[in-house]
Design brief:
The complex is a heterodimer of chains A (323) and B (205). Chain A is of the alpha+beta class and 323 residues long. Chain A is built from 11 helices and 14 strands. Chain A folds into 2 domains: 157 residues, 2-Layer Sandwich (Uridine Diphospho-n-acetylenolpyruvylglucosamine Reductase, domain 3); 98 residues, CO dehydrogenase flavoprotein, C-terminal domain (Enolase-like, domain 1, 2-Layer Sandwich), CATH 3.30.390. Chain A starts with 5 loop residues before the first strand and ends in a 7-residue tail after the last helix. With 205 residues, chain B is α+β, with helices and mostly antiparallel strands. Chain B folds into 2 domains: 75 residues, Beta-grasp domain (Ubiquitin-like (UB roll), Roll); 69 residues, [2Fe-2S]-binding domain (DNA polymerase, domain 1, Orthogonal Bundle), CATH 1.10.150.120. Chain B has a 5-stranded mixed sheet with strand order 2-1-5-3-4, sandwiched between helices. In chain B, strand 3 and strand 4 form a beta hairpin. In chain B, helix 5 crosses helix 8. The radius of gyration of chain B is 19 Å and the shape is elongated. Classes of the chains: A alpha+beta (323), B alpha+beta (205). Bound molecules: flavin-adenine dinucleotide (FAD) and FE2/S2 (inorganic) cluster (FES) (2 copies). One FE2/S2 (inorganic) cluster binds next to loops of chain B.
């Protein structure tokens, strides 16, 4: 059973902000609860107060100028049901193969879910260090990072939505005590330097209120590789956005998921100027993973990331070979 | 399960639960005092809090700590033990209920946060001794072995059938994707779910 806590379901954002503490750990924000309550049952977080965002009016999707504005409390199934949500994002949401998670989980909660690293989930902290040494390196790290793992953090960012939103050039609106700010989705994440830091750049008393996705003409897609059909996270995913004019690529962006402590943005600009083919997609993917730094047990994730990126590019270009 | 004193384990647990409620200080406060206290601090708990839940068509009043999950409220406070606790972590589906008509994990929903929503549990499906079509289909297609996952699968199937009366294989895989069966009765489960919307074939039991 979780530790006892006090609970509030404020009716407005202002009220919610007042209830949040200025230090991580004292208070936590409750969205769908699909990650938070499990973290609490495992005593990974032990808040004294829970602030439920259900009634503050953050659910819903609406076009606004050149963007689609998605409320942070919008559920996964609402995203899937909405015709204007870009393909890369719906394909990421469709990867969560559980109607229960889709009816409960929110886009804000997906972006801010905590790593699944089993050392973290068993109370050893984000950096999982014991006597100054990495428990991850010494232990079972088959699902751990193959990029960006040179420092103490070896876990992978668990969100499939973040890579899609980064490839699409999306941002989040964040409300705090001092008003609102806007942040590229990419800049929501950081690699913590010490065990007391969280893996996000927002403060404990800030709320992600909206996700703002530019409406673009790009062809975009997400490709995930999973060990099982349902109820698990991908081993690797890739989200891409490609603009093609007269059959030639004029712009291309890509981000890998589940391979690094942060969503791993990669450079695919070498595609620009030519026709996107199976060969050019495979070549750029090989170039990208040449930088990988796998640990001893997770080399397969490098290969999976390469395949995911190749196929995401072909899927976006409408050239996917369906086996 | 009953002991020589005629006290079932379930009733014993319920008795303990009721004692805890009486001991909670919230019950002792008058309604006005409670309202005044809430205006100053909108938080409730950590002790037991009176809540109302709409379950299977009736409003149930109970007192729970904010940390009480909907699953624990159903099982330990309301004697609705059809929903099962297996993982308690949103990863198996044994605790599945319908919230506002959609499948949801009751183990990962706080009871206090489920106020104002319409909750339906597996107990609501049969009409007395008359099983619901999906339950009959489970019997007909032998869709269980140990049966512990069954209530969750029945409710998940019911949620699917309400949106898609005759799901194909792919729709069933998707609709039951949030439930696991440790005994591996997936063949029967898929058949039951696919056949429940279709007219009964009759004959076979
Ligand atoms: C078995 C299983 C499989 C899954 N597979 C996948 C997958 O393949 N891909 C994937 O991307 N996800 C996957 N998920 C994650 C799932 O999508 C998330 O659990 C869900 O999206 C979290 O949303 P929530 O609303 O329930 O968040 P909560 O659990 O309520 O919150 C999660 C965290 O975010 C914080 N938070 C939530 N909203 C805000 C906000 N607006 N502002 C600030 N902080 C906030 C909370 O404080 C908490 O720390 C899986 C989960 C499970 C249990
Ligand atoms: S007990 Fe709720 S999902 Fe397993
Ligand atoms: S029948 Fe035993 S777990 Fe499903």
């Amino acid at each position: 059973m979780m530790h006892a806590f006090e609970y509030a379901a404020p009716k407005s954002l202002d009220e919610a902000l007042k209830l949040l503490g200025s230090a991580w750990g004292d208070t936590e924000i409750l969205a769908g609860g699909t990650d938070l309550l499990s973290l609490m049952k495992d005593f990974v977080v032990q808040p004294k107060r829970l602030v439920n965002l259900a009634d503050v009016g953050l659910a819903g999707i609406a076009p606004e100028g050149d963007s689609l504005v998605i409320g942070a409390m919008t559920t996964l199934d609402a995203l899937l049901a909405h015709a204007s949500v870009p393909t890369a994002l719906t394909q990421a949401a469709a990867g969560v193969h559980s109607p229960q998670l889709r009816s409960m989980g929110t886009i804000g909660g997906d972006l801010l879910q905590r790593p699944r690293c089993w050392y973290f989930r068993r109370g050893h902290g984000l950096l999982a260090q014991k006597d100054g040494a990495s428990m991850v390196e010494a232990g079972d790290h088959r699902d751990h990072a193959v990029f960006g793992n040179g420092g103490a953090a070896k876990y992978v960012n668990p969100s499939s939505f973040a890579p899609a939103l980064i490839a699409l050039g999306a941002s989040v609106k964040v409300r705090g005590q001092n008003g609102e700010r806007s942040l590229a989705v990419k800049d929501l994440y950081r690699t913590p330097a010490s065990a007391t830091e969280r893996e996000f750049t927002i403060a404990s008393n800030e709320i992600v209120t909206h996700v703002v996705v530019p409406i673009s003409r790009s062809s975009n897609a997400t490709y995930e590789i999973r060990q099982r059909h349902g109820l698990d996270w991908p081993e690797a995913s890739a989200s891409v956005a490609v603009t093609v004019v007269d059959d030639k690529v004029t712009a291309a962006s890509a981000c890998l998921g589940h391979v690094a402590p942060v969503p791993w943005t990669v450079d695919v600009s070498s595609l620009v100027g030519s026709v996107l083919t199976a060969e050019s997609a495979a070549a750029v993917a090989a170039e990208v993973v040449a930088d990988a730094t796998p640990l001893t047990m997770n080399g397969h994730k490098v290969e999976l990331a390469k395949v995911a990126l190749t196929r995401a590019l072909l899927r976006a270009a409408g050239k996917e070979v369906v086996r | 399960m009953s002991d020589p004193n005629g006290l079932s384990r379930r009733h014993f647990l319920k008795g303990v639960g009721a004692g805890a409620i009486v001991a909670g200080s919230i019950e002792a406060l008058s309604a006005e005092a409670r309202a005044a206290a809430q205006a100053a601090n909108p938080c409730v708990g950590p002790g037991a809090v009176p809540i109302k839940l709409s379950i299977n068509g009736s409003v149930r009043e109970l007192a729970v700590e904010p940390r009480t999950t909907l699953l624990d409220a159903l099982r330990n406070h309301l004697d609705l033990t059809g929903s099962k606790k297996v993982c308690d972590r949103a990863t198996c589906g044994a605790c599945t209920v319908l919230i506002d008509g959609k499948a949801a994990y009751s183990c990962t929903t706080l009871a206090i946060a489920a106020q104002g929503r319409t909750i339906e549990t597996v107990e609501s499906l049969a009409n007395g001794a008359e099983l619901a079509p999906i339950q009959k289909a489970f019997v007909e297609h032998d869709a269980q072995q140990c049966g512990f996952c069954t209530p969750g699968f029945v409710v998940a199937s019911e949620a699917l059938l309400r949106t898609n009366a005759s799901p194909d294989r792919a729709a069933v895989l998707e609709g039951l994707g949030g439930n696991l069966c440790r005994c591996g009765t997936y063949v029967g489960l898929k058949k039951a779910c696919m056949s429940a919307g279709a007219p009964a074939k009759g004959g076979r039991r």
